[in-house]
Amino acid sequence: MNLRQLEMQLERLEGFERPTARLEQYQTPAPVAARLLHHAAMQGAIEDCRVCDLGCGTGILACGAALLGASAVTGVDIDPAAIAVARRNAGSLGVEIEFLVADIRSPNLDRPPLSCDTVVMNPPFGAQKAHADRPFIDLALEIAGEVYGIFNEGSTPFVAAYTEGRAAIEEVIRCAFPMKRTFAHHRKERVDITVEVIHLRRI
Q1: Number of domains in the chain
Q2: What predicted TM-score, i.e. pTM, was given to this entire model?
């Protein structure tokens, strides 16, 4: 499946029904999700690999990984409503994904079942709570050797410093992230921001 075909499949998926600002529930745009996944696939990190989508929301990254031939895909999110949409999305594409409702920040999180080859994720940018992405980075590097994450523009120096001694940044891809009007405090129908897709490899 080429990049455009993947993007078209992901465009079909449902978004959040009632997004929550506290959880920074912005829908990952299909072009961004497709680019991350296609790039990871070209590097051998998706097909025939076990993939985990941390903070999966409505499952766009998880669904894309399954479409690209992952041997097993797990999606984890704290919001049961988002997981319900994710399950419908997987069903509409005819892919099998295990979706779990869990808080990745909890010390009681059952980690062994999440162990995988590759983590894909779009963690919170920290607009509502500073450093909200740190628990995602920590868990990702604990359970996988390869990590592909979407971060706010300018995050690379922080990610490099935060993961020093644990991981190396293999590549950074900058791309446009069209953010549609989602919450009451948003004044524009759409704002285009720049994000960084960061590929981390555990040391």
Answers
A1: 1
A2: 0.92
